[in-house]
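Task: sequence in, structure out. Protein: FBD domain-containing protein.
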Amino acid sequence: MGRGSKHGHERVLSLVVVAAVGEEPANRSFEQELAQLPVTDFSALDLRLWIGGHIFGALVLQLLRIRTTIRRLKVVVVNWLGSCSSENCHCDQLGSWRNEHISLPYLEVVEFEGFHGADHEVDFLKLLFRSAPMLKGMTIKQTDLMPPNKKGCQELGSIFEANASVKCIWV
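Result:
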């Protein structure tokens, strides 16, 4: 599921999460899975999400709640399907994550690769801005797998303007 490594003075937990289309939710929680890993005192979280169109906000929020003291977050989204096509999919049944608040008092740097501009991606970035008062930098890299959502990209520009104290880079 994951591995830990040291980069300079930080411990990095790297996880690859693959959406299993048509699968039932797992019997074990992320807390239970992470407890099995040899690295529990990580200060950086590196996520590779192979989401297949699924909404990832609730999943990442659950991971962030496990370790709220991270300083660096990297999320790489690989989406090969566009958007989730199942009406009964459990990926957004916990849609309330979009309005939640989590305290991430040490989070300073966020990298997000694979940005498309979907509503749930924009909502996830809003959640990070309102939850991380010490945020110093955010880098967003657009996906080249599909054309960007114009509305979402415009909203991201507005979010960056509203958070002028954070060094925001969009490539």
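The radius of gyration is 16 Å.
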